[in-house]
Design goal:
399 residues, five-stranded antiparallel β-sheet, 17% strand, alpha+beta, 9 strands, 3 domains, 12 helices, single chain
């Protein structure tokens, strides 16, 4: 089975590998290595400075709703709306994409890859935001026909998944008897942010904290078989006796034996059921232990760091390819050059965000566009001078 994937804008290769490959490319064009390294460094420090402000803004907005803070969470609906808008901007800068309702529904309705099925109680969330970053296809062996057949299938896996969850308040849970039993306690107050890696699309339910395990048909048969077999055995042994068969009588000891045997099979079935549920919980706990990357405020630092890397990688790729071109090129030609280079150099096929990359160069006054929309950039010496001057005048508060 093949899976069609839309191209991601996420450059999954690390910044250090991109810089190294660009540096090798620059050397073939007789550019000085030290100047190229200095240029990369200027891009990094300038964007690190800009992104630091974004991080502080996110942390400030999140402080009143952070579950890890010792103080009680006190925030208004307008505060969480403002925070989610600020967070969404940071996600867009880092090339994250919202997970659509259709993708969630597909995960719920699709056949799970892990040996477990989960029901998610979405009605318990006051706010829910889901984001994905990058994706790939993995092959896995899956059993079918009750374990009699094994086949290799392809599954879509999200490289990174981020969840932002706010539960409804305690009053909502206690108003209804059925909801009350699922009340998770005061530890769920606030807005919970979780970051995961390598999440199979069809098993996306495992990232939610309020799930109930459901058993597949094969598991139900395994658990029910002893009880069914026991009932058949008891029936064949005792029913003839109860209805005037040859052996014995319907004494109290006989009736007691029937119920004792029946109770034994019921207990075995219940024990098997509890054991299966516990095994399911272990599967989820183990899976999440190795896939969890960060929680709450630490996620914000992680996100900004990833967004900063994306911004720098886009900017230096655009600058270096325009610089190394023997003649002025169009935006479309630049886009093709970089995408082909990433594919050939790192074996990643992405939709390079060329317009965003050019905006960064234009912001730094490094980009030039003529009347025919052909692109060129300042040479390295001039670019270093411009960026150094930009850095020196970041805080020119005194006349």
């Amino acid at each position: 089975m093949s899976i069609n994937l839309s191209k991601s804008q996420y450059i999954s290769v690390s910044k250090s590998k991109v810089k190294k490959a660009l540096l090798q490319k620059a050397q073939s064009s007789d550019l000085l290595e030290s100047k190229v390294k200095n240029l990369f460094k200027m891009f990094e420090v300038i964007w690190h400075h800009d992104m630091h402000y974004d991080l502080e803004e996110l942390k400030s907005g999140y402080e009143s709703m952070n579950p890890d803070t010792p103080m009680d969470q006190e925030y208004s609906s307008s505060q969480i709306t403002d925070f989610l808008e600020t967070l969404n901007k940071a996600m867009v800068d880092g090339n994250w994409v919202p997970i659509s309702d259709d993708e969630v529904q597909e995960a719920l309705e699709g056949e799970d890859v892990l040996p477990i099925s989960l029901d998610v109680r979405f009605e318990e969330f006051e706010n829910m935001k889901l984001y994905k970053l990058g994706h790939h296809v993995e092959e896995t062996v899956k059993s079918s026909y009750y374990g009699l057949k094994k086949e290799t299938i392809q599954m879509k896996v999200f490289d990174r998944v981020l969840t932002v969850l706010e539960f409804k308040d305690k009053d909502w849970f206690v108003q209804d008897r059925k909801r009350k039993k699922n009340y998770p306690g005061d530890e769920v107050n606030g807005v919970h942010i979780r970051l995961f890696r390598d999440v199979p699309h069809l098993d996306m339910e495992v990232i939610f904290p309020n799930t109930s395990p459901t058993m597949r048909t094969l598991e139900k048969i395994k658990i029910s078989a002893p009880l069914i077999g026991g009932l058949v055995s008891i029936g064949m042994k005792y029913i003839p006796v109860l209805f005037g068969g040859e052996s014995g009588s319907t004494s109290l000891s006989l009736i007691g034996g029937i119920f004792a045997a029946l109770g034994t099979y019921v207990m075995k079935t219940y024990t098997a059921y509890q054991k299966a549920r516990e095994n399911f919980r272990k599967i989820v706990a183990k899976d999440m232990y190795f896939k969890g990357l960060a929680n709450n405020e630490s996620v914000l630092t992680y996100l900004i760091d990833m967004a900063e890397e994306q911004e720098v990688k886009e900017a230096i790729c655009a600058y270096m390819f325009i610089l190394s071109s023997p003649k002025a090129i169009t935006e479309e030609q630049l886009d093709d050059l970089i995408e082909n280079w990433l594919r050939e150099t790192f074996a990643i096929d992405i939709d390079f965000e060329v317009d965003d990359a050019l905006d960064k160069l234009e912001k730094m006054n490094l980009l030039k566009t003529d009347e025919n929309n052909l692109l060129s950039v300042e040479n390295i010496d001039s670019a270093l001078t411009i960026m150094d001057d930009y850095w020196d005048n970041l805080y020119n508060f005194v006349d």
